[in-house]
């Protein structure tokens, strides 16, 4: 585990002990993207295990409109058994401002939702007279920052391997991991991977198509 990331273990413990068993805290070491989960508390909430990889870092954190000052707060996802999880993630940086990891807080909303539903059932129903507009905006000023993180994840995923000696299957597996984690949703990452693996952009796209066809069958 990276020494900077390791310093956040007491914080994870105190958050979990303060807010109880429905609050899970997960620490990621992003210097090892494929096995980024290095510490968990109350992992019965989502079932996260040490040695697993990140799931929501790209789509719900880096690409979120709410991502600012190195954190994204209060996004939601469902567990495999249908429970709604409220989540927040903050990046961990070293003294040189390099991203080293992330700390995630996952709250099982089941008990809260049940209580709210019960209390709501006791109140008179108020009609909804109009749509609830959601403002849409795009903050392009942070894209350089996001690209820096994505490029670092790419570099860590490929590692220091001699790409000239990599078999085609090994390159496809790396691309499959990055595609699964949403890295290719970020502008410029296809070009970065092509450059790192010493293949063309067309080849990267063909590998992605091959991966989608293989894993979407059935």
Topology:
Blueprint: H1 3-6, H2 9-19, E1 23-29, E2 37-41, H3 57-62, E3 71-78, E4 84-93, E5 99-108, H4 110-121, H5 143-158, H6 168-180, H7 189-197, H8 201-215
Antiparallel strand pairs: 1-2, 1-5, 3-4, 4-5
Helix pairs in contact: 5-7, 6-8, 7-8
Provide a descriptive summary of the structure in words.
- The protein has helices at 3-6, 9-19, 57-62, 110-121, 143-158, 168-180, 189-197, 201-215, and strands at 23-29, 37-41, 71-78, 84-93, 99-108.
- With 218 residues, it is α+β, with helices and mostly antiparallel strands.
- It folds into two domains: 3-118, Beta-Lactamase; 140-215, no CATH class.
- The protein has a five-stranded antiparallel β-sheet with strand order 2-1-5-4-3.
- The chain starts with a helix and ends with a helix.
């Amino acid at each position: 585990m990276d020494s900077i990331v390791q310093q956040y273990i007491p914080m994870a413990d105190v958050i979990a002990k303060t807010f109880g068993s429905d609050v899970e805290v997960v620490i990621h070491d992003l210097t090892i993207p494929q096995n980024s989960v290095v510490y968990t508390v109350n992992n019965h909430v989502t079932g996260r295990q040490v040695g697993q990889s990140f799931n929501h870092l790209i789509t719900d954190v880096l690409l979120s409109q709410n991502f600012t000052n190195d954190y994204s707060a209060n996004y939601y996802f469902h567990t495999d058994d249908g429970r709604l999880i409220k989540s927040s993630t903050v990046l961990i940086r070293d003294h040189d401002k390099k991203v080293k990891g992330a700390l995630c807080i996952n709250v099982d909303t089941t008990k809260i939702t049940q209580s709210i539903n019960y209390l709501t059932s006791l109140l008179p129903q108020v009609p909804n007279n109009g749509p609830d507009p959601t403002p849409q905006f795009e903050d392009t000023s942070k894209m350089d920052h996001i690209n820096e993180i994505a490029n670092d994840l790419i570099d860590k995923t490929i590692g220091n391997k001699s790409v000239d000696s990599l078999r085609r299957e090994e390159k496809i597996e790396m691309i499959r991991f990055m595609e699964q984690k949403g890295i290719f949703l970020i502008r410029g990452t296809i070009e970065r991977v092509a450059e790192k693996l010493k293949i063309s952009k067309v080849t990267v796209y063909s590998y992605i198509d091959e991966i989608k066809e293989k894993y979407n069958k059935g």
